[in-house]
Amino acid sequence: MDLEDTLLMMPGPVPVAPRVLRAMSKPMINHRGAEFSAMYDDCCEILADVFQTKNDIFLLSGSGTAAMEAAVACTTEKDDVVLSLENGKFGERFKDIAARYGKVNALENEWGHSFDLNEVEKKLEEGAKTITLIHNETSVGIQNPAKDIGKLAKKHDALFIMDGVTTIGGDLVKTDEWGVDIAVVGSQKCLAAPPGLSMISVSDRAFEAMADKENLPYYLDLKAYKKSADKSQTPYTPAIPLFFALQEALHIVKEESMDARIKRHATGAKAIRAAASAMCIEMFPQLNAEHSHYSNTVTAMKAPEGITGNDIKKDMMARGITIAGGQSHLSGKIFRIGSMGNVQPKDIMLTIQELELVLKKREIISDIGPGVEAASEVLDTLL
Amino acid sequence: MDLEDTLLMMPGPVPVAPRVLRAMSKPMINHRGAEFSAMYDDCCEILADVFQTKNDIFLLSGSGTAAMEAAVACTTEKDDVVLSLENGKFGERFKDIAARYGKVNALENEWGHSFDLNEVEKKLEEGAKTITLIHNETSVGIQNPAKDIGKLAKKHDALFIMDGVTTIGGDLVKTDEWGVDIAVVGSQKCLAAPPGLSMISVSDRAFEAMADKENLPYYLDLKAYKKSADKSQTPYTPAIPLFFALQEALHIVKEESMDARIKRHATGAKAIRAAASAMCIEMFPQLNAEHSHYSNTVTAMKAPEGITGNDIKKDMMARGITIAGGQSHLSGKIFRIGSMGNVQPKDIMLTIQELELVLKKREIISDIGPGVEAASEVLDTLL
Questions:
Q1: Is the Cβ–Cβ distance between B40 and B225 less than 8 Å?
Q2: Considering only CA atoms, which of A17, A238, A64 is closest in space to residue A168?
């Protein structure tokens, strides 16, 4: 198998468009020169629309985890309580990060189970300076109710930090309208750039929270980023090729328009769910609350009786398609198909077709066709 | 002027070879797959030779500053004393980083002035858990005596953290022989890869220092890197294209051999100094100690009477060559020519020739030729 010709249907890294790869391979430039600053400003302008925010946006040379840490580390003193909402691996990560900087009060749901807003509010009533939420819990394919959590945060005067790593740029996110003080996205997810950069929006209120804070981290010091942003620069040497790539990827986003992009993502995930249903594959998330939804960017399914998630992944890989298994204790029990970035209907159609063949050969399903037909019916609404 | 056809003669980012740019523009891969791990191992193997170490080496998706912070943050408790040696901007940065994590005892030399080993030892006698040194102080073009400092660190049982950002891969560095517990390098300097990655070697003794430490940083948690390294992975999503690029850049290093590379760097800087001398341009560093040397990778010169460093930089830029000015309070007073990475004699010859023309036109020197001749005489020893 030619590795370079593998179709990535993971929840990131996602396939990167040839024009983005070409942009990335330009010769180096001086990161303190005018041309870098122009690129920086161009990225920020498009990102403001993607984030739906008037807040400052900074570009960090580090993964989404770096930006998650920057958000918590810069706003949390050691006696501050961080209410951490967990229903998957990345919620757990946010909790672990918070524990290194403050006092954690965690709402720990079983992974894949939606949050009960009453429970969230009860926790907030115990007092919290900050609340952290994973908008789209990639590890379990659930979309958490960011808008509702934002309302509760506002009511209880808590800072709202949202990990939008696998929604921003592909799913509906309204940073300002939802009252998100700090929102975070990674380059290699819905924005379809290579991994290595993260973008973070920071409200005035969040800056106030870090005004008197002692011992900010250094590389992730958001105040340093703000100071350098006035000159359209980064405080430390940026990963220049990744900026070239991000800029081109953002132009693709702009050309498509966020409205069309959001519709395409939602339709793609819906098609995968329809196909799964036609193949009698169960969704993994337990949506026991009306305000939670299946993810619009990654679909997590239970491995059908008689096959593990890892076997499905392996069989798909042999056919040239990379999907994801389960993480931590979900390894083997679930499998996940990412449909984020510039993924097109044809990519989803191929994935479903191959999945049907894999399951048929393993004698998990008896007929091929129903999955493909169901997916097509949904995707054809985009035509 | 075509920006893509500018010759970068800065102390990083440096020009990146076309084959490195091509390697970087490959399609994305799964960072949890076998192909990534093979690339990771290949990089570490070559880096062990570059660092001259048997210690663990980790690859961070972040700039050299991130690795500097990781070194200090993971080994320093808030009551620990860090002896920070400063004679330039990056020494100052190390001091600022240390101040966020422990108690700083700084030896603050005037920028560009070499360290007096007796003074260093006196400071060590006051008690220090850790000593930080910039091996090559890029901001002022001085090479600090890492080997001697290593001996003093050993004698006084202090952890030795060395920033080798602009030496490792181009200048002589013997991490283990010199007793360097943590050594740091950036991708965009002597290794001639694009910016965005940093590599860090960590001794067992350094790991012992972080064994019981509470509240390690998260993204820069070296214990997490060690754990993932056992699987030839990184703990968080790596900047995949920069790994493709680094691997290819390291193959170039290996093909040239470190011995030849060190000789080429030393000869290149010597040629620039010879040219400067022939043009009556003074070196900036004050080498008032026998164990300090002019840098082998960047040459810092005083702006001659009648012109500022920034004007020289501007005039050179108009002729298609990017050099560097002075940083902070040295802005305008000095100018710097980088000669690191894959810089060839012809690049240095062109730079000197253009510099002579710039200075002649500004009526700073009366004749062109002596600089070129002096540089050529040194560089021709490489033929």
A1: no
A2: A64
H helix runs in A135-239, sequence order: 146-155, 204-211, 222-229
Residues of B with Cβ-Cβ distance to A31 under 8 angstroms:
13, 195
**Strand, coil or helix: A27:** coil
pTM beyond 0.90: yes
Q: Check residue B324 and give its pLDDT.
A: 97
Question: Could you tell me if B220 lies within 8 Å of chain A, comparing CB atoms?
Answer: yes
First-to-final CA distance of chain A = 32
Q: ipTM of the assembly?
A: 0.96
Beta bridge partners of B61: B197
* A10 shares contact with chain B (CB less than 8 Å): yes
Q: By the 8 A CB rule, do A348 and A371 touch? A: no
Residues with Cβ within 8 Å of A208's Cβ and at least 6 positions away in sequence, in order, are none
pLDDT in tens, A288-334: 888 999 999 999 999 999 999 999 999 999 999 999 999 999 999 99
Q: Give the pair of three-digit tokens for residue A147.
A: 């808008």
Q: What percent of chain A is predicted at pLDDT more than 90?
A: 97
Domains of chain B in sequence order: 3-12+257-382 (3.90.1150.10), 18-254 (3.40.640.10)
Percent of chain B with pLDDT over 70: 100
> Which has the closest alpha carbon to A249: A7, A5, A12?
A12
| Alpha carbon distances (Å) from A50 to A56, A162, A184, A245, A258 | 13, 15, 12, 17, 7
Minimal Cα–Cα distance from A290 to chain B, Å? 33
CB within 8 Å of chain A, chain B residues 263-322: 322
The Cα A21–Cα B245 span in angstroms is 13
Query: What is the token pair recorded at A156?
Result: 């209880």
**Phi, psi at residue A186, to the nearest 5°?**
-105, 155
pLDDT at B158 over 90: yes
Cβ atoms of A217 and B69 within 8 Å: the answer is yes
Identity of the residue in B61, B194, B245 whose CB atom sits nearest the CB atom of A62? B61
End-to-end CA separation in angstroms for chain B: 32
Q: Please list, in sequence order, all residues whose beta carbon lies within 8 angstroms of the beta carbon of residue A311, skipping any fewer than 6 positions away.
A: A303, A362
**Residue whose token pair is 């004679």:** B87
Q: Hey, is the C-beta of B7 within 8 angstroms of any chain A C-beta?
A: no
Contacts of A347 in chain B (CB under 8 A): none
Q: Where residue A183 falls among pLDDT bands split at 50, 70, 90?
A: very high
